[in-house]
Amino acid sequence: MPDSASGIAAGVDVGTECVKAVVITDAGRTLGRSVIPTRGYFQVCAYEALTAALDDAHRRLDELTGIGATGFGMTCVPNATVTITESVSHARGAFHHRQHAMTLVNIGGGDPHVINVDATGRPVRARGMRRCAVGVGSFLMFSARHLDVNATQLDELADAAGNNAADVSSYCSVFSASEVLERLREGATREQVALGCIRSIAQRVLELGGFEDPVVISGGVAEYFPGVLRALESLSGLQVTTVPEPIFTGALGAALAVFSDQRGEPARRVVDQAEGALQ
Length: 279
Hints:
Blueprint: E1 8-14, E2 18-25, E3 30-37, H1 42-57, E4 67-70, E5 82-83, H2 86-98, E6 102-106, E7 113-117, E8 123-128, H3 136-146, H4 154-159, H5 173-186, H6 190-206, E9 215-218, H7 220-224, H8 227-236, E10 240-242, H9 249-262, E11 271-272, E12 277-278
Parallel strand pairs: 1-4, 4-5, 6-9, 8-11, 9-10
Antiparallel strand pairs: 1-2, 2-3, 6-7, 7-8, 11-12
Helix pairs in contact: 2-9, 3-5, 3-6, 5-6, 6-8
């Protein structure tokens, strides 16, 4: 990519449910953005999302100084010049907005992480869920489908249950999905099951522990299922806020990483306690 295009970069976050892309300036201003459902080949979805973000920004691919990639399918982003893990990208993106230390909770379609971000924006520690509990966003999409509502209407359905939630396990995504069907067969209302699903996700996240004020949420679940945030506040007693446009946090962090890489800044590494490895 030509050096003459310096000052504009793209970030692509290839998740299990959605692919997100942003185009930003070197000052971090977003020029364009896009979200598409993940389907078929990751490479095709990444290209489609990036093309849509460029169209939204009224820019061309050859104007980019680089492309940052993150997410489950980050290795599938064509022409990526930088790849960084989800924990690092979400920490970068959230710190760009908040500029202070925080407990960042990334809740997307796959594996939520609690990330301790220091006062310089460095992610110092990340805790992820056990394998059987991942796929929270996918679980909520599954639940909405079986409750016969659009995914974005699941919150509204849950609100109608008051405080009367059906019992949906927080331990395992597969068991939880089966319990949705079992509760419906037993006669629980759709509203009760919807509220039980949202509380199940909040309980899974809280099981990760290590929450200290301020608690900030990023990821697609915060964008589409804000009831999970209210459940987190209710169950934990902590105040929970979101970053602006939380679904784009990872893509923003990946785009910012392009400029950091060009400045020769060292890669940021974070101890992921879920995997016991450095990311």
